[in-house]
């Protein structure tokens, strides 16, 4: 039931983005749920449900699903495989769950121990590669805080400031390409995750 309610928030956020607004859901980003598999704490795929909902309402925007959770968004890769109107991109810890990985339109698997400067440089390059291949009207941003150094499920070493700067760069990218933004918190398993997720959303809202 909580995940169904959260999925409703993502649906509402994506409809707002179709209307040209920026939106955030305080839950959601259940990016491991595939059409035929619930796993990785994800029972349903809220992004896929939201895309289906806006299409059922007669809208077919070009959507970038940008996944910066520590874990690859295999559920979104599966849900949108072969869908020319949705581009999936994931920057994740290469050896973390899920294994095996599925193919996104753009995957960047990084080794353990990645710190702020290296991570942000990879993000900038990935955004450039996306711009060469796709022109989104909406960016659905899966903004997991599990790349934090203190997260118990990962081995990245991003600081609180690094995560917030990551969020700013995604927002600036969306503004630069003229896309609406939907921000979802996704994974984060340290005591610091709620505070850092909130700080990132506030930073995005203040741009």
Poorly predicted regions are: none
Find the count of extended strands (DSSP E, 2+ residues).
6
**Strand percent estimate:** 5-15%
Determine the N-to-C terminus distance: 34 Å
Please list the strands of the largest sheet in the order they lie side by side: 1-6-5-2-3-4
Structural class: alpha/beta
User: In which range does the helix fraction lie?
Assistant: 40-55%
Number of helices: 6
Mean pLDDT: 97
Any idea what the shape is? globular
Compressed to H and E, one letter per element, the order equals: HEHEHEEHEHEH
Gyration radius, in Å: 15 Å
Largest sheet: 6 strands, parallel
Say what oligomer this is. Answer: single chain
Descriptive tags:
alpha/beta, 207 residues, six-stranded parallel sheet, 6 helices, globular
Characterise the protein shown here.
By secondary structure, the protein is α/β, with parallel strands linked by helices. 40% of the residues lie in helices and 14% in strands. It has 6 helices and 6 strands. The protein has helices at 2-18, 46-56, 74-79, 116-133, 160-177, 193-205; strands spanning 23-24, 63-67, 86-93, 106-110, 138-142, 180-184. A 6-stranded parallel sheet has the order 1-6-5-2-3-4, sandwiched between helices. Helix 3 (74-79) links the parallel strand 2 (63-67) and strand 3 (86-93). It starts with a helix and ends with a helix. The model has no long low-confidence stretch (mean pLDDT 97).
């Amino acid at each position: 039931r909580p995940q169904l309610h959260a999925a409703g928030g993502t649906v509402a956020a994506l409809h707002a983005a179709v209307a040209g607004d920026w939106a955030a859901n305080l839950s959601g980003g259940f990016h491991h749920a595939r059409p035929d598999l619930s796993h990785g704490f994800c029972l349903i795929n809220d992004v896929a449900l939201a895309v289906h909902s806006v299409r059922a309402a007669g809208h077919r925007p070009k959507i970038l699903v940008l996944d910066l959770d520590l874990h690859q968004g295999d559920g979104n890769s599966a849900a949108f495989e072969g869908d020319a109107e949705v581009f999936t991109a994931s920057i994740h810890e290469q050896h973390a769950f899920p294994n095996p990985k599925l193919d996104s339109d753009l995957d960047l698997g990084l080794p353990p121990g990645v710190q702020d400067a290296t991570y942000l440089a990879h993000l900038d390059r990935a955004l450039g590669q996306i711009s060469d291949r796709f022109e989104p009207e909406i960016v659905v941003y899966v903004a997991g805080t599990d790349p934090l150094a203190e997260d118990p499920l990962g081995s990245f070493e991003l600081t609180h400031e690094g995560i917030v700067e990551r969020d700013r760069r995604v927002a600036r990218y969306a503004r630069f390409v003229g896309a609406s933004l939907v921000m979802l918190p996704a994974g984060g398993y340290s005591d610091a995750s709620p505070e850092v997720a909130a700080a990132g959303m506030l930073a995005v809202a203040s741009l």
